[in-house]
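Lab notebook, bench 4. Continuing the backlog of folding jobs that were queued last week. Each job is logged with the same field layout so the records can be merged later without manual cleanup. Today's entry covers Resolvase HTH domain-containing protein, a 116-residue chain. Filled in by technician R.K.

JOB TYPE: sequence-to-structure
TARGET: Resolvase HTH domain-containing protein
LENGTH: 116
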Amino acid sequence: MDYSIIIMVIGIILIIVSFFVKDSVKKMETEMEDLSFTLYQETSALKRRLKMVEEELLMEPTKIALPAKQKTKSVIHDIIKSQVLELHKQGYSLPEISKRSSLTVEEVKSVIGGGK
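JOB STATUS: finished
OUTPUT FIELD FOLLOWS
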């Protein structure tokens, strides 16, 4: 009889303790529910974006009239002009000067001709 009372007291104590101890399984379940809900929202948002992109790609392209290319005389900066003249004084050929200054050979000729 002594043992039955002791076991009953231990059982009552364990029941009382179980009310005060937080249930980690419940916490984990709520975290998993939140995670799955967030994942579902992100997946559906990606699907909507993908559908929009697919619709845009399937649309017929609109024809846009592009203006005719006009040749504009490029303005050569004074620093580049002085660099070209210095390279010419050092004896570099026109193609070498063109490579170093990122100008065309015609532009190099115009700089050297205008510089003299």
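OBSERVATION: The CA atoms of residues 12 and 18 lie 10 Å apart.
SIGNED: R.K.
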